[in-house]
Amino acid sequence: MLEIRALRAGYGAINILNGVELSVAQGEVVGILGHNGMGKTTLLRSLIGELPASAGEIRFDGAEIAGWQSHRRSLAGLGYVPQGRAIFPDLTVLENLRMGEAMRPGPSAIPEILGHFPALGDLLNRPGSGLSGGQQQILALARCLVGRPKLVMLDEPTEGIQPSIVEEIAATLARLRRELGLTILLVEQDLRFIEALADRVLIIQKGRISAEIAPSELRRPDILEAHLGL
Ligand SMILES: Nc1ncnc2c1ncn2[C@@H]1O[C@H](COP(=O)(O)OP(=O)(O)OP(=O)(O)O)[C@@H](O)[C@H]1O
Question: Which residues form the signal peptide (predicted)?
Answer without folding.
Answer: none
